[in-house]
Amino acid sequence: MLYRIAKILNHNSFIGISDENDQECLVMGKGVAFGKKVGQTVSAATEAKAYSLKEMTERGDAKDIIKSVSPLCLELANEVLSRAEKEFEKVDRTILFTMADHLDFAIRRVQNGEQISNPLTDDIRVMFYKEYKVASCIRELLKEKLQIEIDDHEIGYIALHVHAAVVDENVSQAMEIARTVRECISLVEKETGNSIDVMSLGYNRLMNHVRYMVARAIHGEKLKMNLNEYMSVKFPGPYMAAERICRQMEKSLKLPVPDIEIGYLAMHLERMLETNVNE
User: Is 275 a member of any domain?
Assistant: First the structure.
């Protein structure tokens, strides 16, 4: 692909006009702009990544974000997405702009000695395990490039951006799912009188079920098989607890949670309670 260079950001990135469709793009790759000049037409290496500047993001226009963040943050976001591609194969790279914007703020916070708190960090680490593992690469990158340390809370937020690049959810939806799952797990603990170990298999099963239950409610999807009659007769205690939890989740989400979800949640509650008894 050929690009006419409109602006050089640094040795590894430039803004160029595509020869193919006359579209303005951010082009990134090792040494892609080294020794080049504005107005020059260059061929980008196959491993270089091109991002359309027509993108609109949660945080605004891609063109505006490029003006306000450092080229290094764009490079860091590009590297995180490359790691995500190795882990997940297919990712939506348009998330680069919002991730770079977040990284820019995160770096400034660290440099100013400001700390953020993310009460959902542990839940994000478990719920989005692979995304968190990918996002953790930013720790070494920032140490190497800027000699700064980033904490787990910041990595948790970056993991949500990685998640948004992997599935059809934006960062605020992913955060809402994490928050609602945490609330649901707290309700389960209250209903059953059991404290749930976040590292246990029972928690992982329950958390994953609740995560997809919340996502289904947000996206208006429905389960096909109905377990309500079986669970209400066979396991009335877990069934009634599941019903109360689903009604509470409706209030929190301000969305309907279909009755068909009750039986499935009851099944997971029963499995978790059984596991706790056996342990």
Answer: no
